[in-house]
Amino acid sequence: EETDCLSEEDLGKEEGDRKPGFIQKVTALLTGMKMIFEAILTSAGKVVATLLLGLAGIILPSVTSAVYFFTFLGLCSWWACHRPITIVTFSSLCVMMAIFSAGHLAALYLYQLPYFQDLVPPDDIYARLLGMVALIKTNSTETWKLQIHSGLSWPVFLNPLLLLVLYYSLVMLLQQWALSPKVMHGSKCRMDKTDHKCSILSLGCICLQVWSITHNSWLTFVLLIWSCIIWMVRDRRRYAMCSSPFLAIYGNILESIFLGTGVISISMWIFYAFTFWLLLRQHMIKRHMEEKQETLTEVTVGICIALITEREIPHNPLLEIFGSLIKGMLVKYWIYFCAAMFFIVSFNGKVVVYKILYIMLFLLCVALYQVHYEWWRRILKYFWLTVVSYSMVVLIAVYAYQFKTISGFLLLTLGLSEEGLKDLGLEQYETVELFAKILLPSTFLLACILQLHYFSEDFLKITDLSNIPIKHECTSGRYVNRPAHWLEANELHGENQTTSDKTENTTVTFLFLVGEPNKWSLVIDKLASLLLQLLENFHKTQVLAWRVLELHILKIVSTWVIYITLQEVSLMNYPFFVLWAFALPYPKLRPHASKICTVWSCVMVICKMMYQLKFVRPHNYSSNCMQVSILEHSGPDSLLQKSVLYVAPVDPADWCGGLRKCGDNNHLTILALMVIEVTVHHHQLFYRTQNQLTPPVTGIIFDTITREHLDDGLLSCIKYFINYSFYKFGLEVCLIMAVNVIKQRMDFYALLHGCWLIYLLQRRRRKAVAEVWPRYCSFLASVMTFQYLLCIGLPPAFCKDYLWRTSRWTIHSNLIKWLYLPDFAKKPDASFLLYDFLLLLFASLQWQVFKDENKACVRIEAGDNVEISRELDPAVLSQYSPVPNFIHCRSYLDMAKVIVFGYHFWFVLCLIFITGTTRINIFCLGYLMACFYFMLFGSSLLLKPVKTILRLWDYLIAYTALVIVMKNLLAIGACAYLDKLLRNHCWLIQTFGMFCTIPGYDLALPEDEKCELPENEAGIVWDAISFTFLLVQRRVFMSYYFLYVVADLKAAKILASRYMHWMLQV
């Protein structure tokens, strides 16, 4: 019962307890806010009062709010002049502002009454001047209802609340000062301590530029000019300090003039002006200290020393290391950020003249870096100075053109066209768009200024290849196993060493001092050891990556340059193609090719950018060949209707340099590749000189692996072949690449490659092939350059078609394609030349291998490629064999050797059998006959001398090459005259398996023809696979390892014969 009564009582009180509980929560919240506000006023009362005066002055500009605003400007300016504000003065000012704000609030409140609104309407100019805004609107018929005027903005509602907060804050502040005078002195000291010695020069100059950009006018244009002047002078700090009074006064005047521009705008302006006040205060403090340093009191001297002079920071080696690392990274890599900004500024948006000048400056620097490194270092500082000056001119010109007087003077007085001015980059924008357009050049200007004034000198020191610091001792893995409580790390002399003169020849040492060893010290020891191991592994990976890049940079650069020129066939790209086609086989031309390509790519980039300008109109100079009648050409070839001569007007710039409107600028990629190439060489030179290393004799990655380590184990074998795989098998790779070219092209020039292939195979011996290899490389380079000329063709602007299109005896388009002749209806496929180039690349590398084979130092490390004697007898193998016996399989490497040298022969025969049975034609019969012969006599054949085996095997390789060449020759009929063969010679198609496997040919096949085409049986894929493994097996036959297999087979045969003899006797 008691529980029930209590429950009823609680239920009865629930409704009454809800409201007091809510009131208590609100009261507690307000009490907490009051305590926080009082604490803020106690610690920074003057600052809060000053900020509230500024907010009250800008929230709703008027004559009354101007009192708050000018009071705020006066206080800030007085503080910036480093003048003390006495307690009596600031208290009196607070009393006056409190009285004025109270009167202002009372006037706003009274103005909400209908009488005063009728006396002075809200739209009256006096009401607007005095800041009297009517919030409440009353109706004479319904006086009990309160309504709010429509169309009021948020500052109108916030203004009374802000005035109330200002009044309350001033009263609270005065009350605190009256109760506790010490608080006033403490507040003064705290306000004085807000000063600091941090350099705000950069912030001030940036604010000058941003202020002028965000508010476009003649008055702010002065700020832009002055910021540019400060950035350019040598002693920027002194001039900025001297000009700080004028900047502060000028900023106050601008704020007073543009007070009514809006809350957001004037707030930004106050922020900009605050940097001027800080700069002025710093200047006044410095001058005050210089004038009265001897007469200051002890207390004032103590405060100024704490605020002005640099406080000695306790020596912290760890911070010094991190600071040195960060500055070193900025010194090394900030120039890359500037280079990226060059590209962004130059290619962002449409192309204009001032962007072309930007890229011309950049290309000049890059070209000089490639052509002459020392000259580039000499002019680098002047280059950045030129870029900064030019960027300022661009910024000022674009900004000044926004004024109607300037634009009108250029358009009307000078008579310049608006389109021409747009090509120059002068165009009028809206405020937001102007800020977006100028922000990027301003950011780029700031980046270049930082590079010029802060990083340039140190960068020149670390890039001086004539004064490289020598690293006498490598300490990368020196402390891996040492405990952390006495761990000592040395900052190595290197690329980051000369980041400052202070640390140029010093060694930074830091000690982790702990007490007696405990579990935490052991953890630190382990973490330090792991960290050092990680750093050491990262360093090794970095060195390996640079070495791999050094080895393959030539292949990457040449392949990419050729690929770009093939994607954009033109006359101006022909120098790139010719240079790299002949630079590969002739190494002496490579440095000249890189330099010429760098300069020529700069010319191409500028030409392509200038072609994008609006004054370049291709239709004004394009040739119109459509007046030539198509009927004048004999032959019903439908492809003639697609000729570029008769489809549209012909732009000669496209044929000359691949110049197109809105085209890609791929030559920047070529330029970047050239820069990467020379950077890799400079880096490796710096690294080897610094570590006192000599360049490797050959292009290897693992310098500790030689021919002696080949048989040590599987891992050593893999490393050896990573180093010398092309040295050992480069000739076979080149022959396989020649077959690949034939397979991809199947045209007239593929037939020439096939003839060379047969000729090289006919030489048989390696020395004989090496004798004709220079002529082969010259042939490849010459044929490539000639084919590129065919791809360029005659200028279409001449409106003259080729002879095979206009003569009485016309040639079919498919035959023109097979002969690789130029044609306006269907251009030769330039992608074929990429396969030719890869063949030339491998052939050039093999030429170098032939040269290295004659060097004793190379033969010692890589082994020789001398063919074994073909008269060797495996019976006396142990007397002269330079390789160990692997037959007994003592390791995984021996097992791999048994598989390759013992069973690869039978695998190749199975592959030959598959090649002969997957297709049905006359050529497959030869494969089957060869396969059956070797399978029948294979066991006995392997026991014969190497000379006999190679003679039969070379016959099979020659037959495979002959089949590949014959199929290429038969491609004339399969691709050019397949329709005629289908009608009259179906047996020929079936016998030789003729079908065109190369895309791009127009095959007009009759629909009612009953002759079945061997689509799945054509091509030389299986022939190429067989050719590859036949070459591999030939190398197996020529190896000393294979003689152990032969010896083992002979031993097994002798044992078998003895066993049979014993069985017969039994």
Overall description:
With 1066 residues, this protein is mainly alpha-helical. It contains 40 helices and two strands. It has a two-stranded antiparallel sheet with strand order 1-2. Helix 20 (574-583) packs antiparallel against helix 21 (590-611) and helix 28 (766-792) packs antiparallel against helix 31. The longest helix is centred in the N-terminal third of the chain and has 57 residues, at 2-58. It starts with a helix and ends with a helix. The model is unreliable at 1-19, 182-199, 296-314, 474-516 and 629-637 (pLDDT under 50). InterPro entries: Piezo, Piezo_TM1-24, Piezo_TM25-28. One of its GO terms (molecular function) is mechanosensitive monoatomic ion channel activity. Residues 874-1060 form the Piezo TM25-28 domain.
Q: Care to give the gist of this entry?
A:
The protein is mainly α.
Reconstruct the topology from this structure.
Layout: H1 2-58, H2 63-80, H3 87-111, H4 114-119, H5 125-130, E1 136-137, E2 147-148, H6 154-179, H7 181-192, H8 201-214, H9 218-232, H10 236-257, H11 263-292, H12 298-307, H13 317-347, H14 353-371, H15 373-400, H16 404-413, H17 418-424, H18 431-462, H19 519-567, H20 574-583, H21 590-611, H22 618-621, H23 644-647, H24 652-657, H25 667-690, H26 714-745, H27 748-763, H28 766-792, H29 803-806, H30 813-819, H31 832-852, H32 856-862, H33 877-880, H34 892-917, H35 922-942, H36 946-976, H37 978-984, H38 986-992, H39 1021-1037, H40 1040-1065
Antiparallel strand pairs: 1-2
Helix pairs in contact: 1-2, 1-6, 1-7, 2-11, 3-6, 6-7, 8-9, 8-11, 8-18, 9-10, 9-15, 10-11, 13-14, 13-18, 14-15, 14-21, 14-25, 15-18, 19-20, 19-25, 19-31, 20-21, 20-28, 21-25, 26-27, 26-31, 26-39, 27-28, 27-36, 28-31, 30-36, 34-35, 34-39, 35-36, 36-39
